[in-house]
Design brief:
Number of helices: 6
Radius of gyration: 16 Å
Largest sheet: 6 strands, parallel
Structural class: alpha/beta
Bound molecules: flavin mononucleotide
Strand order of the largest sheet: 3-2-1-4-5-6
Strand content: 5-15%
CATH superfamily: Flavin prenyltransferase-like
Shape: globular
Number of strands: 6
CATH topology: Rossmann fold
Amino acid sequence: MEKKIALAMTGASGVIYGVRTVAALLARGCRIDLTLSPAAREVLAEEMGVTLGSPPALADLWPHPSGLTYYPPTQVAAPMASGSNRYDAYIVVPCSTGSMGRIASGTSDNLVGRMAEVALKERRPLILVPRESPYSTIMLENMTRLSRAGAIILPASPGFYHHPSDINELVDFVVGRILSHLGFSDRPGPAGWTPKAP
Ligand SMILES: Cc1cc2nc3c(=O)[nH]c(=O)nc-3n(C[C@H](O)[C@H](O)[C@H](O)COP(=O)(O)O)c2cc1C
């Protein structure tokens, strides 16, 4: 059965993790409701040279965006903001430490925070992919708090034992960990992980 995913990209470095996660999920027939924080757009422009309009031309990032629906982060009445709409998983990738803190303290002020708090209150899978170094004690406490509340803290910490030969293979190590938490069986192995995504 096709999975329905709520996915947010925020302004941590490594926006490519979000881009390739979306691509991998679309390639596996998932339906994705997507939002991007304003900072995610800035990092996208900085790191990938992609400046998205409003509304964004999704095909600029994903050549075959059928199954993908975009909602602005201000649209707190979007489907993923309501617990009545069931998603198989909620993912924030990458997850800035700012968004992490807001989610941990339950002070959501946009769709990213709201969808995460819905996941927690409804006891549905929530995967947060932070990227920061080093972590402050406050960041670590926020992550511990969220982990205790049921979130999966899946840091953007790629392994190297699959001998990645380029950045995409490195990134796809983390994407593979996300997919495996969603029940997709393909994952990185000793011979490397060949993504089905473009
Ligand atoms: C180029 C760039 C790289 C950034 N890298 C990180 C990062 O790796 N981790 C992080 O937590 N914040 C990072 N930030 C800071 C966040 O974007 C900033 O805290 C922002 O307010 C987060 O907002 P958001 O959570 O609504 O996306 C970066 C910002 C820029 C412009």
